[in-house]
């Protein structure tokens, strides 16, 4: 039988990157076919101001051999040049707007570069239906603060390597959550405990964890009342969730 667990979202990390090239339309479509509840993706800005979906600052890791390696930072390249690079089986680096057109589930939109904020804010302002299924996230408090100013109605979440992530946030994670008016924390497992999670929840924050690498991580998430777990392999993630919800 299924236990009375609170909602728990399987989040496809860069789509379904275990089965398709990360951060591509093919990866996002496959993630939806598999049945993810949310998709996580990364935003950078091209030299000519296009919001693109790419994790790294360059194309060196994701480009097919002979296609786009060695071109330098994407922030110094026009999108026209980026768009012809093969990032896996003929896939290209999509724009943020193309991803909005191609998806239907909730999106965790991670800002990798602060300079992308004005453009993504412009896009969500022009697309209120799309904005309703977005939460902006970032490791960068400055990005979240700018989003608070430019897109105040779209919720925000802080990403951390763990808790308390003191090197990045010497003043404490709670101070950053307050400064950015974030509604969620997406934390790595390092230092995360049930008491930490409950304390954050009691002050009104949602808490998700990453990465989720097996059914035991999902069981912990359900026990702690986490809102989500981010997985590289959403097909496995769905299976882990089903298994973890079974009680004797």
Summary tags:
9 strands; alpha/beta; 20% strand
Query: Count the helices. How many?
Result: 10
Seen as an oligomer or otherwise, the chain set is single chain
* Termini Cα gap: 7 Å
Could you describe the largest sheet, including whether it forms a barrel?
Answer: 8 strands, parallel, barrel
Strand content: 15-25%
- Compute the CA-based radius of gyration: 18 Å
The residue ranges in which pLDDT falls below 50 over 5 or more consecutive positions are none
Describe this structure as you would to a colleague.
It is a single chain. This protein is of the alpha/beta class and 248 residues long. Helix content is 33%, strand content 20%. It is built from ten helices and nine strands. It has an eight-stranded parallel β-barrel, surrounded by six helices. Helix 4 (117-126) runs parallel beside helix 6 (141-150) and helix 9 (215-224) crosses helix 10. The radius of gyration is 18 Å and the shape is globular. It starts with 8 loop residues before the first strand and ends with a helix.
Summarize the structure.
The protein has helices at 25-34, 79-82, 96-102, 117-126, 128-131, 141-150, 173-180, 194-202, 215-224, 234-244, and strands at 9-13, 38-45, 51-53, 106-111, 134-138, 156-162, 184-190, 206-210, 228-231. The chain is an alpha/beta fold.
Tell me the layout of helices and strands.
Blueprint: E1 9-13, H1 25-34, E2 38-45, E3 51-53, H2 79-82, H3 96-102, E4 106-111, H4 117-126, H5 128-131, E5 134-138, H6 141-150, E6 156-162, H7 173-180, E7 184-190, H8 194-202, E8 206-210, H9 215-224, E9 228-231, H10 234-244
Parallel strand pairs: 1-2, 1-9, 2-4, 4-5, 5-6, 6-7, 7-8, 8-9
Antiparallel strand pairs: 2-3
